[in-house]
Design brief:
Strand content: 15-25%
Shape: elongated
Number of strands: 7
Structural class: alpha/beta
Radius of gyration: 17 Å
Low-confidence stretches: 140-157
Mean pLDDT: 75
């Protein structure tokens, strides 16, 4: 269950990174940065060390540091969700006859796009590499109770995470 929660946090981090980049591009617009702060507190505020670091950076107006902290948090969660995270993009993989399966020429394995927990657990148990589409992943509250054994790839505008699950 913890890994599914982390997948949901990962999705929120990616959204917050996008909002922060927009806010930083419009730094003269204090309303844009204020909106990011409010949304951050709603979406991600927790007792996690990275959350507290971001709030501190926001207070002392080190906004660019917030992006680095979000990147570190994303990396940490990615390493918790996947045993072997992969830096490849979904669209770097070779297409196959099945739109939900791509082939990785680096590891010579198929990578399966998963859209829900049931499929994630199935692929994990088969020790297959997966792509998690963060925009469409459905959480049905099944618990992930055994270790994933695959790698991880990021896809389509960073909305996909791929890899071998723990």
């Amino acid at each position: 269950m913890e890994r599914i929660i982390e997948i949901n946090i990962l999705k929120k981090i990616k959204i917050m990174k996008g909002l922060l980049v927009i806010a930083l591009d419009n730094e003269s617009d204090s309303e844009c940065l204020s909106s990011f702060k409010q949304l951050f507190k709603i979406q991600l505020e927790s007792n996690h060390k990275f959350s507290n670091e971001i709030l501190n950076c926001l207070e002392i107006k080190k906004h660019h540091d917030c992006l680095n902290i979000l990147n570190n948090w994303e990396h940490e969660i990615n390493n918790n969700v996947f045993k072997n995270p992969c830096n490849k993009k979904w669209f770097d993989l070779v297409t196959t006859e099945n739109n939900e399966v791509r082939f990785c020429t680096d590891c010579n394995k198929n990578v399966f796009n998963v859209l829900n927990q049931d499929e994630l657990i199935k692929r994990k148990n088969l020790r297959q590499c997966v792509s998690i589409d963060l925009n469409n992943f459905v959480n049905n509250d099944l618990e992930l109770n055994s270790d994933f054994k695959s790698c991880n790839i990021i896809c389509e505008e960073d909305s996909y995470e791929l890899g071998l699950p723990w």
